[in-house]
Amino acid sequence: MNKQMSLKEVVGQLRDGMTIGIGGWGPRRKPMALVREILNSDLKDLTIVAYGGADVGMLCAAGKVKKLIFAFVTLDFIPLEPYFRQARQSGELEVMEIDEGMMLLGLRAAAWGCPFIPTKVGLGTDVITLNPDIKVIDSPYDDKEWVAMPALKLDAALVHVNKADTRGVCQITSPDHYMDDWFARAAEKTFVTTEEIVDTEFFADEAQARFVFWERSQTTGVVHAPGGAHPTSCAPDYGFDVPHFKEYNASAKEGGFAAYADKYVTGKSEDDYQQAVGGIDAIKKLPLPTY
Amino acid sequence: MATPAKDYTLAELIICANAAAYENDGEVLITGIGVLPRIAASLAMKTCNTDIMMTDSESWLLSEPNPLSRDKGYKQMNETWMGFSRIFDNVWSGRRHITGGPTQIDRFGQSNISALGGTYQKPKVQMLGTRGFPGNSICHANSFFVPSHSTRVFIEGECDVVCTIGYNPERMPKGYTNDDIDLRMIFTDLCVMDFGGPNNQVRLVSLHPGITVDQVVENTGFEICIPDNVPTTPAPTEEQLAVIREIDPQDLRSKQLKDNPPGDRS
Known about the structure:
heterodimer, A: alpha/beta, Glutaconate Coenzyme A-transferase, 2 domains, eight-stranded mixed β-sheet, 31% helix, globular, B: alpha/beta, six-stranded mixed β-sheet, three-stranded antiparallel β-sheet, 6 helices, 18% strand
C-alpha cells in the first residue's frame, strides 16, 4: 500500500472541531510543515493535544484552537511561548492543563482502548480542582483515592520523523522519540512528515529497524517534507533555528502574528517558506543544541 | 582533609548546601533544574554520594555528570537511554529527588509554575504550565531553589495555581497523610529551610553567613518555625570548590544570582 501524499492532502483529511495530537517536544521535532499547512487552511475549532512549542503558539495565534490540552508550552531557550501566553491572557482559550505524565497515560489509555488509567499523579493539586472532567475514584484494592486519567482519543496525530518508506514504516533516529509512538497509537489517523523517503529494504538492517517505534498499520499517510520540522530541531539532521525563534518571539511584541505569518506563512508553499528562511541547505546546517 | 574555603560566592555556598541534601539518598535519579541545582547534583555525584544517577537533560543517563560547558571532542559518558517516556517510569517508581525553582511557594509547601494573578481562565501572567510538577510532588522527594527570597515567592496565601501537593490538610487526598509526601529542603539566597516544624511547617535550618533571622522573617509571607539556635550554613571546602570549577569551567554560576554576591555578607 502506497501511503505517500502531499501536505495539502493531509490537511484535506482534517475537519473542523477535530482533536489533533502533535508529536515532538517544545522546540524539537515538530511537524511544522503540516502546522503551516493548517495555518493556510480554513480549519477551525480544533482541540490540540501537545507537549507544546511554537506549533501550539502559532495555531493559537491564528485562531485555530478552541481547546488546548497541555502540560507546558515552551520554546526552551525562550522559556515562555509568546503567542500561547497571549491566548491564555486574553481569556479566550479553553484549556485542560495536566501533568506531563498524565498526558502520556491519557494517550496510552486511548491506544489501549481503556476509558482511563489510574494514577496518583495530580492528587492534591489544581490539576484536579480545575478540570472537572478528570475524576478521582476509589480503588477496589486499597483505601486510597486515585486519579482516573481519561483516555485522550485523537482524531488525528501529526508527527515528524527522520526516515519512512511509502508503506508507513517510520524511523526516528533523534535521541528521543518522545511520546510520538503513543500519539500514533492514540489516533484514528496518523499523518507523518519525513526528512527522507527510503526503500523498504533499508529496514532489513536490525540496527535500523530498532528505531522504528510503531507498526505501519498505525501510519495513515506519509509526506516527504525535508526540513519540515523547521524552525524546530530534527536531530541528528539539524538543530533549531535560534535567530528565527528570536524573530518569532519578537513579533509578539511588535507587529503581531500577522506580520510573522505574512512574511513566512500566509499564501506560501513549503518551498516558498524554505526560500524565505535561507533554503534547505541552510536548514540542514543549523547546529544541534547542547544542554 | 576538608579545608573550609575563605573566599567563595553565595552561588557556591548554595550549590554546596544543595549537594549535601543528596548525601543519604542512595541510588536515585537526581534532577537539578537550572544552573545552580544542576551543579549541585553534579557535585554530589562526584563527592558525597557517588551512587547518584543523572541525565544529560535530554535523553541519556550518565555514569559521569556532563560539565556545563564542553569541548567539541568531549565524550559524554552514557549509561543507558533515558528518553522522556522512561523518565516517567523512574518518577512513578519514586527513585528520584528533584530540586526545582517554582515562582510561588506557600506555607503548605505547595508551589506554582503555571500562572499568576487574574483568574485561571484569564490569568494576568501565563507561565510554563504545570509541567511534571504534580507527578514529582506525589511520587518522590522534592527540594526547592529560590534565587531571591521574598514575600513574592513565599506568599502569604495559597498559590494562585497549586501545581504540587504539599502538607495542606484541606487538600490531603483520601487515604493519604503527611508521611506520604516527601518535601525536603528549600535553598534560598538567605538561608536553608526544611519542612521539619510542627505538622511539617517550614523550618529555618541555617542562615547564610551575615544574614539574620529577622531578614528571613521579613522576606517570608508566612510564619515559619525558628529553632532556638540556628547555625550558619557551612562554607564550601576548597575540595568542593575545585570540583565545582571542573563541572562549571566557564563560571556560569557567577551569572545566576544578581550581582554575584560573596558567600559571607557580614
